[in-house]
Amino acid sequence: MSGIDYFNELNLKEYRALDIKSAAEYVKKQQLKEIFGSDEELIAEDISDGNLNLVFRVKSKNSSRSVILKQGLPYVRRVGESWPLTPVRILVEMKALQIHGEIYKEGIPEVYHTDPAMFLIIMEDLHPAKTLRDCLIEGEYISDIGVNIGRYLGRVMAYTSDFFLDITAKRRNISLFLNPDLVKITEDLVLTNPYHPEGWGNRMEAMEYPEVRALQNDVEFLSKIAALRDKFNNYPQALIHGDLHSGSIMAGDNLCKAIDLEFATYGPIGFDIGNIIGSLLINWIAQEGLTDQPYQCRQYRMYIMQMIEDIWDTFREEIYNAWLNIDKRRWPSPYLEKILKDIWEDAMGYSGTEMIRRTIGLGYIADLKNIEDVQKRRLADKKVLSLALKIIKEPGDIYKLKEYLKEL
Amino acid sequence: MSGIDYFNELNLKEYRALDIKSAAEYVKKQQLKEIFGSDEELIAEDISDGNLNLVFRVKSKNSSRSVILKQGLPYVRRVGESWPLTPVRILVEMKALQIHGEIYKEGIPEVYHTDPAMFLIIMEDLHPAKTLRDCLIEGEYISDIGVNIGRYLGRVMAYTSDFFLDITAKRRNISLFLNPDLVKITEDLVLTNPYHPEGWGNRMEAMEYPEVRALQNDVEFLSKIAALRDKFNNYPQALIHGDLHSGSIMAGDNLCKAIDLEFATYGPIGFDIGNIIGSLLINWIAQEGLTDQPYQCRQYRMYIMQMIEDIWDTFREEIYNAWLNIDKRRWPSPYLEKILKDIWEDAMGYSGTEMIRRTIGLGYIADLKNIEDVQKRRLADKKVLSLALKIIKEPGDIYKLKEYLKEL
């Protein structure tokens, strides 16, 4: 596998950004025989809705078949050319899809075509699956979703970590996924800015909350944040997704796939687990604002809690299997327990940072934003922050987490 | 700075190993005007005595001036072609000398010339300085040596870590110093093999010691070793020397320079500090076998203990200054205390692994080997292992360390 050059000027000679016309033509030219007949006419629609990239759905006029074309821009799509950002992120996503896909193909979309010079990927259209976030906001039940997330995480983490890789293979992967530009975005927007009143991108309104001012001045708490930031930057434990919130998971019947892998890097396993758990906890809290049916709220919260337990139990089971079957380093069993305990505690910490940044940082989360009643929304913000603070200061086991939720 | 390719076949077309004749000619051709006059005749002597490389002293026939020429071989010099090892290690040393030298030139030898195609470096001859190990074995007192080691460590660690580097600069450095082949040697020979009875390179005699059998079966202890190994492989905190025992430090009046930087990599700061402290503790214990003068032994032990305190205090002072003056991340002060506490505890752990590998692994250390009385030598081995075990299981502060020494 050839490397990715993160540190020199890019060659953009062959690059041009596509539009709906050229996107359809581009896909047509690839002759994706397993998808489209050679005489089918293709049309594209622009469905870009993330912050960073162009996304087109290219579909047949003659059939229901379609693909997704994702292309990187040399800037942040949502902001424009004033925020330049290397399209190298698409090369990162290509490699991450390849590696995660080789390990556990059920966990990511199928890739049909990649073009490094155009910084684009053509992949499986997961329609009509929705993001897990949309499902959660609408209170839908998806079977086995927690187990499937846990399996994806356990499998890819085991096989990209020291359980399976010797130092040379591991460091080759590390160099492939240095991904400094996107890691910097996470360092800034997730792990730094929300803790400074003047941090770029923060929700101005939230900067006035008394509990936000308090946490921004709580030196013991800020030391915990500093430790989480250091670990995110400096613990290349496994090839993590890097942005695995509920909006990065497509969910449907018998379907659970991670998308948007451009933040992939070698980092702490607990970062991914924490991000998804943090997303789920936000929704758990938001439920009482999203529905006015107390019974429904209670039921759905039980469902979310079960999802969290399923993620962890399945992940744990996969790691245990890796230890039994592929462990290259003869780790003694108390050390396995320590690894798992550390990963859980990291996950608790990063679930806290995810909750905080989604409440007071850039990108106020839909789960909370969708609460129509202003007072209920404010109360939900407050509860999210209170839970995050506790969980970061004293990350306990899953029973402790349940206690914290009861105390809200 | 261009990168180092660790993962593809080397180009050795322009490479040829030098001998005393061609080494002298090579140096002559470089016209090192600051060292030699253009009409001086040069002669070389082979002074290779490390495990890995060719080392020549090239000196003037007309004056006392000389330089050191160090060249990598495509195998381990001491073993021969049956143990191939990439000469890329010399490129690593070049870059590490450059970076450490830019930060703190007093801490490393001056470099006069580098030749990446020939995998060689021409550098300052530190003669008549000796290795710190030789000084310690002979019971010599060297002024300020602890302070100088601490300053070197503090300065280079601060400026190659997150105190000073943003994520892009840091990750560029990480990719430059992946150094998988030499890191693998450390993982195996220092952090793995001594803990397995059949580990390659172990001292056969020591495998029969009851205390060695005990530690090789102590699962709680082995879990601590696993954690130290994981941290060595996976905590790119700063650009460490990677092999900073007392034989890698040249010591003399007003002179303290680290040599042999081919193991340089991004790793935990405590690894370097621990290696040097571990070396010193071995010598502390060995003193009662090396001299039959109890007073002299006691005095020298106080001197070694003072050296350890000077290393730590000066290192700590440098890090504190870095925090005050160059900290890019606004770390809160309790976090600074935590960083320092963690580094000290890491250092205690790695001082333990250094003591163990030097006693029972490959390369039984001269400090112990030089004890002529067999029983005294056996007793010293035992004390080194006993101290290492305690320090790894329960790394306390410096007072705890002194207690452990008293208990021996």
Automatic annotation (TrEMBL), chains A, B:
Residues 198-277 form the Aminoglycoside phosphotransferase domain. One of its GO terms (molecular function) is S-methyl-5-thioribose kinase activity. Keywords: ATP-binding, Kinase, Nucleotide-binding, Transferase. Its EC number is 2.7.1.100. Coiled coil: none annotated. Gene3D superfamilies: 3.90.1200.10, Phosphorylase Kinase, domain 1. The keyword ATP-binding applies. The keyword DNA damage does not apply. GO terms for biological process: methionine biosynthetic process. Belongs to the methylthioribose kinase family. Homodimer. This is S-methyl-5-thioribose kinase. It comes from Thermosyntropha lipolytica DSM 11003. The lineage of its organism: Bacteria, Bacillati, Bacillota, Clostridia, Eubacteriales.
